Amino acid sequence: MEYLNENTLNEDNLNITDKLEELDEEPLYIINHHVSPNKLKAYIRIELLEKDAEVSCDDIFEYLEEQEIVYGIMENDIREYCQDKEYSKELIAAIGKEPENGKDGELIYKFDTSKEKRFDENDDGTIDFRNLNIITNVNKDEVLCYKTPPLEGEDGIDVYGEPISYIRGKEATFNNGKNTYISEDGQKLLASTDGCVELKNQKVVVEDVYIVKNVDISTGNIDFIGNVIINGDVKEGFSVTAAGDIRIRGMVEGAYIKASGDVVIGKGMNGMSRGSIYAKGNITSKYIENATIESEKSIYAEALINSQAKAGDSVIIKGSTSTIIGGTTSAKNIIHAKNIGSKTNPETNLIIDLTDYIEEQKSIERKKRRNHNLEKKLFELNNKLREIDEKAELIMNSALDEDNKKSVHRQLMLMKIKLNNEISEIKRQKEEVIPRDNIGNHKIICRGIMYPNTRISIGWLKYRVRQDTNYSKIYNDGSDIVVVPLNPSDLD
């Protein structure tokens, strides 16, 4: 025999020398092994007792058999290992078969669940506001989604030849919302009414939708609790109010539009100096002219002309000829357009409202002051904690009888628990994240020409454009209005 295995060296507390004397011939090397915790890999290590010894692959095979390692033996690798005499390396001698877990059942939706807003651009560079395809109408009893069954898996085998059970796939479950029901066989989700299907907060819901051709004398004003779709126009003098979204495929004249969701106008709006739009969501229109509009989120258009526009987030005017001319445009984050103003130099006002930013900076300062006070309070509490520990030690070493000692010690421990709770609460408050906002993120982007008589207000600073300014970014750096060339990152 030319090798010892690891078990040979651990019996009856005999040392290696004692064992070697008992063997018929002196071993040339020792074979050791270890198996990974999941029992899917067995590793061999060789310790040469003679520098020029050669390891026999048959000895390794015999050793593995002795250790009951019988599955996934890497015969070719073992032979190459011995042939190449790579004894200094650890050898993967056996690899088990991993279990193939079952696949969970899935819900297959019969409608587009994506909510991402994407604008298609035509060959001439203009934005197609007519084909937004934002509503998915369904009929009563129409299938909205269905289940696929979970798929079976396959057991694995460890290096000892023992099976490893696979994890079974889970059955899919419906997370259904209003105006939907589950089929009798439990495999399909269907609409219980005509309407618009959506995935909201991972729930399938069918919204009731009010659909009309035009808003005019034949319909009167509309005040609806859900979404409204108008396939034609909204005529001058009428109003549309909705608790959801308002989608208008035609144009809006001097009308009043109010939505708790988004407002989308396919052909644009001429407000005739009396029309207005208010939306808690986004406002999207081909163009907006002579109107007053306000969005708590963002405004998207291809042209904004002689209008009063206010956005809680940004005003994005895009397209090959996108422009802002006249009026006042206000946003809290970004105003983006190709051209601003015109050659006739009408007064065009742009406002970046930094009220929220300023309030946030004040809040940050308040939190900094609060954290400073918390540090002082924490220091005081830790001192009190040390005092309690000192008093407890004095009491325990005092001449008081045991009953009094226990009573006082109990009171001190209750005080200590209360102090520790206060300390934990202060530490929690200190760990609260203080938000950070860069003032330079609130900016005006002009991808073309900004004409003279454009008047800019960014927070507390004002700036008037007196000559053509090309391809620029304008922002408040905290002390002055800065006008710099655009970077590629500014156009993302």
Question: What does it look like?
Answer:
This protein is of the alpha/beta class and 492 residues long. Among the domains are: 3-95, no CATH class; 99-120 and 138-205, no CATH class; 356-430. The protein is built from five helices and 40 strands. The strands form seven sheets. It has an eleven-stranded mixed β-sheet with strand order 14-16-18-21-24-27-30-33-36-39-40, with no helix packed on it. Strands 15-17-20-23-26-29-32-35-37-38 form a ten-stranded mixed β-sheet, with no helix packed on it. Strands 19-22-25-28-31-34 form a six-stranded parallel β-sheet, with no helix packed on it. A hairpin with a 5-residue loop joins strand 8 (156-157) and strand 9. Helix 4 (355-396) packs antiparallel against helix 5. It is extended and about 110 Å long. The two termini are 73 Å apart. Mean pLDDT is 86; it is low at 8-23.
User: What is the rounded distance between the termini?
Assistant: 73 Å
Say what oligomer this is.
single chain
Kindly report the average pLDDT value.
Answer: 86
Helix content: 10-25%
- Tally of strands: 40
Fraction of residues in β-strands: 25-35%
**Stretches with pLDDT under 50, minimum 5 residues:** 8-23
The largest sheet is: 11 strands, mixed
- What is the tally of helical segments? 5
Summarize the structure.
With 492 residues, the protein is α/β, with parallel strands linked by helices. It has 5 helices and 40 strands.
